[in-house]
User: What shape does this take?
Amino acid sequence: MPKAILLKPIFRYSANSVLRSMLERPAGLNRYLLHNDTRIFRLSNMKSPFPFLMLLTMTVAGGLSTTSLSRAEEAATQFVIAGPDHVLDGWVNRKETSFTDPVLHNHGTAWVNYHRCLMRFDLGAIDSKRFSRVGKATLRLTVTEAENPAQKVTNVAPSTQPWTDQATFWTTDGETPWPASKGHRNIDYAMRNADLQSLVIETPGIVEFDVTAVVDRWLYQGLANHGFLLRTGGPIFGVPDAGSWKQTFAASEAKEGGPILIVEMVGEPPTPDTIPQRTLRWFPSAVHPPVRDPYIIYWDFGRPPRLPGAASNASGTAGVSVAEGVQQGMLVLNWFYGPQNPWLKNEKGFVDSYVNTARGKTLGIMVDEWQSPKKDAESGSRLHADAPFGITGSIKGMIEAKKVDPSLFIGVAWRGGSSIEPATREGVVDLLMIEAHTHVGKRIPVNWGIGMEGIKRRIDVARELGMIERTICWLGHIHKPEEYHEGHVLTPELVAAQVAELRAHAPEMPGIAFYANTDEELARACDRAARKHFIDPAPEVIIVEPDFQDHLTTPHVTIRVEAKPKDEHTISHFRWFIDNRLIAETETPCYVWDLRGENPGHHILTVHAIDNAFNQAATQIRVRTTRE
Assistant: This one.
């Protein structure tokens, strides 16, 4: 009976045992087996007696076979493509070639000869329009001979050139040469290195290559299916001493163990109507922080320093006007009287005030005076209101405001109190702005300030709330020396030391804030310290695929970046944005964007690269999309 191969275990069942196991089950993973002389059947409503994975194979009159694969985690459909009717494979070397041999030769003999293998799978049975994406694609090969004392690496990559069963080491079809570089033609130049997969093969048995990205490109991204090229030992030119090894695989013409491509298709195609469900977070704009810049250097009650290439990129309306700041690419937050607003007399009044603001023309708000309606032992805040509806109304108001405009950016001036917890739990606070003023002007009592240890305690509370990556400290006040209390003067050296100390205590924080500005020299020192600790250490990152202003038309598009960390750091993860929407976070520098879920037109792609010390950088391009 026909066989489908699993690594562990291999279950073989007769038709009767299959029929006996057909019990009702939830929709699981349907699997199609395509091989020689096989039509497609589908088994459903089958309950697997095994807890993890089961493969059932049934043989009936006429050579028909089908399999059903049940997995508890996710409903999906798999296609298993094998056999000479669905696979064209062969091998070539400098002297001969074969596309009928039951064995694929991939030997290497120093100074004598080197082999290459080719294989192409028919994907015609997969109707990609029915699915969201390729969940996983695996190229499975059976190694029949392996001697690899030097542990040479075997590479698999898609071919960039079409080829036929007349291909040779020198030509794609007996006549057309393989690609050339610097005047030299080589089959290795046809390997698409961006999608290359590698494995060291030392013993006979089953090996697998993850070719998910390649198959997605074939099915959704317009890459022509020219099959795979396989080599061991790296590119060669002429007949060098590139090492010696013996390696063979079962071919599709073999009685068993030939190349198998397993493609798992999952999900339903997205539509623009599902954008809210697919968005992790909304932001006011793609061309303002924190999308364009992944850090926030914020000023309020004082203008940001006038400095070429200033680090400062955010301000309250007491620093610059909304119109001026927005046109300069700054995140401008309108001042908003928070829970202590004495003119609002009930919870509804607070809710309405937030909702009405969300309906206006603003990037966001800075909610001031977030204090409990009684003295808070954690924050040391003083009584400003005598009713709890200021807190509850503000929390409900922020929730309702986000419903009106999910992109409204909400920052909260905070002193470490626990009353903010319900709002952070609901995810409506975009930025906690810790009041961390160590030095104040003469018009304010000197004991109104807070020491560095107190600031750190507030930071630790933010970490406990799960908000540390959305928290910045508000240092200051930034005044002329004569405007401070005697013996309590904030100097350029001291503010630089404060920024460095806070950055070391909580590297997760995405920036820093400063309050007031009546001394341009000190303000510039603040800006230099911010740049030194938040911008200069950031990685270098660039989008390499697609290109700026590309016109994208395929269902899927791969967005790929190159990121280079500094100071021996390593890149830990990436954030992916479409316009003002955070759509994914990954550990890999690639993301597959499904254009079927977007409205056609111009879009801004932004990618953040974050290293293991929480240094962050951003890159951004503009593209145009059209639905097919």
Q: What stands out?
A: Residues 296-535 form a domain with the TIM Barrel fold (CATH 3.20.20.80). The chain has four domains: 15-73, 87-266, 296-535, 540-625. The longest helix spans residues 389-404. The chain has a mean pLDDT of 86.
